[in-house]
Design goal:
37% of the residues lie in helices and 25% in strands. It has 242 residues and is an alpha/beta fold. The chain has two domains: 89 residues, Nucleotidyltransferase, domain 5; 122 residues, ATPase, nucleotide binding domain (Nucleotidyltransferase, domain 5). Helix 4 crosses helix 8 and helix 5 packs across helix 6.
Length: 242
């Protein structure tokens, strides 16, 4: 039986079926009825293991419903920190960051990595050649910065990410677009310069957009978090067989 991987983020849910480390089709859902959406994925086939990583706490009622949709359920949220501690990660990490770190360890074993996730938030995490976590930062994501400028200023319009930003804007909208995008690029160049020997990995919705604007070589792995969840599911299966 295949496993089902579910990542519930700040603005959307992503899911994929997996056979060990091989990911199938990726599904995306934006809405409040995430249990119903997951149930729609399991109508034809019940997964062996369902891994649910969530930035929000999974209620006991929802956990009971999810258990009916699979043979084994692994919940990864703020109320379940055991996995983090068992793998040498700080308990404050969100599981999407933890999954990305696990996948980077697997893909680039023996190499230090700088992992940048471009989502609603912008997270930067560092792991050493030994795979140990070296720390990380969280900032506003790209679209969140545009929304913040619009919301917390009296006159600035809401601007979308420009297709071809200039270094300096020659209009109000261009200034906003270039200011946000250039600011993130300058941030990334600074973080990458901290450990130039590291493999640089970009993931998340805006990963490709920023990777092609960087001076250094970047690995773009859009499903890095789901790959980490696939590793967790595989590890869970092995533990059950012991």
């Amino acid at each position: 039986m295949a496993n089902l991987l579910v990542e519930i983020g700040n603005t959307a849910l992503k899911a994929a079926w997996s056979e060990r480390m091989t990911l199938g089709k990726t599904f995306r859902y934006q809405g409040e009825k995430y249990i119903e959406f997951i149930q729609s994925l399991t109508q034809r086939e019940k997964p062996s293991v369902m891994v649910v990583s969530s930035v929000y706490p999974i209620s006991q009622a929802d956990e009971t419903l999810l258990k009916q949709e699979c043979s084994f359920l692994l919940i990864l949220d703020g109320q379940h920190r055991e996995w983090l501690v068992a793998h040498g990660l700080p308990s404050y990490l969100s599981y999407d960051r933890a999954a990305a770190i696990l996948a980077a360890r697997y893909l680039f074993k023996g190499r230090g990595c700088t992992i940048v996730d471009f989502g609603t938030t912008l997270s930067i995490d560092f792991i050493g050649e030994d795979g140990l976590y070296r720390g990380g930062n969280i900032s506003l994501g790209c679209r969140t910065r545009f929304k913040a400028l619009n919301r917390y200023s009296r006159s600035l319009p809401l601007v979308d990410i420009p297709e071809a930003p200039e270094l300096l804007g020659l209009s109000e909208q261009a200034s906003i677009g270039s200011g946000v995008v250039s600011g993130i690029i300058f941030e990334m160049e600074g973080y990458l310069a901290l450990h130039p020997e590291n493999i640089a990995i970009f993931t998340g919705g805006d990963a490709n957009y920023f990777a092609k604007r960087m001076k250094s070589s970047i690995f773009v792995i859009c499903n890095l978090v789901l790959m980490g969840l696939a590793l967790m599911a595989d590890e869970y299966v092995q533990k059950m067989g012991e």
